[in-house]
Amino acid sequence: MQNVVYEAGDVDEEARALKAVNPVYPERAKKLGVAGYVKVYMVIDVYGNVTGASVLSVDPQGYGFESEALKAIRAWKFEPAKLGNYPVAQKATKEFKFVP
């Protein structure tokens, strides 16, 4: 049971953000006035830490939006998901929008 990672719909209580960190707007994109969007997949472990974060999609590519989004999400802290009264790992996604 320790290595199981649950979908959000399979837990009694979903993980809840306790500390959210906003990504830094990439300097080149800011100078050029380029807006961006990143969708990140992550696993929130039984301690509320983000593990296994990866980019699902980014638009546009080549401006550094994805690396800034990953840096930010790895700094987040969560109250872990619960199944019964026990903390469990949960899969989740987070979307970041970069607007100049």
Strands, total number: 7
User: Regions with pLDDT < 50 over 5+ consecutive residues?
Assistant: none
End-to-end distance: 45 Å
Largest sheet: 5 strands, mixed
Overall radius of gyration: 15 Å
* Number of distinct helices: 2
Mean pLDDT: 95
Which percent band covers the strand fraction? 35-45%
What structural class do the secondary elements suggest?
alpha+beta
Percent helix among the residues? 10-25%
Elements, N to C (H/E) = EEHEEHEEE
Shape: elongated
Task: Give an overview in words.
- The protein is an alpha+beta fold.
- The protein is 16% helix and 44% strand.
- It is built from two helices and seven strands; from the N terminus they run E-E-H-E-E-H-E-E-E.
- The strands form two sheets. Strands 1, 3, 4, 6 and 7 form a five-stranded mixed β-sheet that branches. A two-stranded antiparallel sheet has the order 2-5.
- It starts with a strand and ends with a strand.
- The model has no long low-confidence stretch (mean pLDDT 95).
